[in-house]
Specification:
By secondary structure, the protein is mainly alpha-helical. The chain is built from 1 helix and no strands. The longest helix is centred in the middle third of the chain and has 34 residues, at about 10-40. It starts with 7 loop residues before the first helix and ends with a helix. The relative contact order is 0.09.
């Protein structure tokens, strides 16, 4: 990507969208670990 040719507001939205995907993936992983931790004990 040519970062210098992209306007700042568009680049900001790219970063926000990327971070929202990363945060949602981390939340889903932690919820998955919590949900299946009781199944592994038996």
């Amino acid at each position: 990507m040519e970062v210098r040719s992209i306007p700042n507001d568009k680049l900001m939205w790219y970063v926000i969208i990327h971070l929202s995907f990363v945060i949602s993936a981390l939340l889903m992983a932690s919820l998955d670990k919590i949900a299946f931790s009781s199944h592994r004990a038996h």
